[in-house]
Amino acid sequence: MANILQFLMTMIPYMLMIIPAFLIIRFIILRRKNIIKKINFKHEVVFLLFAAFISGLASLTVLPSSDSGKLLINDIYKLNIIPFHTIIQQFASGDFNMLLINIVGNIVMFIPFGYCPALLWHGFTPANAIMTGFCTSLFIETTQFFIGRSSDIDDLILNTLGAALGYLLYVLSQKINPNYAEKFKLHIFPV
Asked: Is the pLDDT of residue 14 over 90?
């Protein structure tokens, strides 16, 4: 629990910093396009929260800092290209706390990449969710390698699984309430 709070405390300032920039940029874009008569408030709020989450995630994963690598893994500057090697090592060493943080954290951290785009935009498919999760995670893992952080294929696999799970949660929410997502979709009206 303390690790989760530490992650959140690291993310929050970056999430808050993005809000004014997002609002200004979004206002300029919507104004310039001049095609949206009625702004969908729910869409804009979820879009803002998703952008803030991405900013917070970047603060944990791709922004270099003196102690950010220590948050996730004690062995800084590590590269693992063998699938499930880190997970097996953590299990074998009996470090179940780190194992749980690694598996659950990497999956949960990427659920928004499958759920939010599907909720916000028409035509977002399971393949889009998987590719979004995979490409975002690949970008993060590649960047981490070049900034002196740990890079791990296990993270890539778990993150992609998280995005797929996010899309599955979206599909389940649609089955429970078929009209749920329509409240969040962006509807464009001609001028």
From this structure: yes
Domain count for the chain: 1
The amino acid occupying position 10 is T
Residues 6 or more apart from 140 whose CB is under 8 A from it?
Answer: 61, 62, 155, 159
Is 191 within a domain? Answer: no
pLDDT of residue 40: 85
Q: What is the dihedral of CA 23, 25, 30, 34, to 10 degrees?
A: 140
% of the chain with per-residue pLDDT over 70: 88
On whether residue 190 sits in a domain, the answer given is no
pLDDT of residue 6: 84
Residue 140 covered by a domain = yes
Structural domain boundaries, residue 94: 2-183
**Mind giving me the DSSP string for 56-68?**
HHHHHHTS--SSH
CB 188 within 8 Å of CB 125: no
